[in-house]
Amino acid sequence: MPDVAWSFLQRSAKQVVRRNLDLTVEGLEHVPQAGPAILAARHVHHLYDGCAILATIPRPVHIVVALDWVTNRPGRLAMDRLCAAARWPVVLRQDGPRAVAPGEAARAWRTAMKQALALLDEGRIVLVFPEGYPNIDPGYTPKSGEADFLPFEPGVARLASIASAGRSPVPVIPVGFHYRRETKWDVAMRFGSPITIPDRTREGAALADLEECVRALSAPTGR
To answer: Binning pLDDT at 50, 70 and 90, where does residue 2 land?
Structure first.
């Protein structure tokens, strides 16, 4: 069955990139042309990061998104339906401006994990922003400036280790972003060499390695 939602989203993302960004891409060869993969990306802009990735990778990409910022019921229902159509797993953050009960957040996390694992089992790409928040957002972000970088949350490592259990390890590809203000945003998007997390005993060390790689790829000159 064709990925109708992805095709629409990719076309829309290309329009956003064309109008708003001067985008350069490095290291795209690190993204496999087939098979499962996890992208672990720096989160700078609430919209442009995802658009740059969707516009660049010629395969369906499923983004793990947070919807706790949607505070009105009609808007939340609409966003839930859109994410379901695109097969984008939804998480809820507990430390944002909207109070989310721990139980509600835990249930959303379990559902999102199950959906992401199913996507990887189908040989698809799942995009995660392990910092949890962007630097530039029209609503709330705990970051105080455009250079801030939050420690990575462990969910991306857990997803990779569970997905890799009993099979060839699923590659986790670090993705760096560097933004510079010009007439348009001058954006460098860099993909690094894959990291594998074959089991839970490697999660902590691999998460630290992954964060270090994304930080380096997000530096003004990259690595």
So the answer is: low
SS (H, E, C) the chain: CCCHHHHHHHHHHHHHHHHHEEEEEECHHHCCCCCCEEEEECCCECCHHHHHHHHHCCCCEEECEECCCCCCHHHHHHHHHHHHHHCCCEECCCCCCCCCCHHHHHHHHHHHHHHHHHHHHCCCEEEECCCCCCCECCCCCCCCCCCCCCCCCCHHHHHHHHHHCCCCCCCEEEEEEEEEECCCEEEEEEECCCECCCCHHHHHHHHHHHHHHHHHHCCCCCC
Q: What is the pLDDT of residue 130?
A: 98
Q: Give the relative orientation of helices 102-121 and 155-164 as an angle to the nearest 10 degrees.
A: 40
Q: Amino acid identity, residue 189?
A: M
What is the C-alpha separation between 74 and 14, in angstroms, rounded? 28
Tokens found for residue 78: 């609409």
Query: pLDDT tens digits, residue range 22-73?
Result: 999 999 999 999 999 999 999 999 999 999 999 999 999 999 999 888 777 7
Mean pLDDT of 12-16: 97
At the top level of CATH, the class of 4-217 is alpha beta
Q: How far apart are CA 160 and CA 157, in angstroms?
A: 5
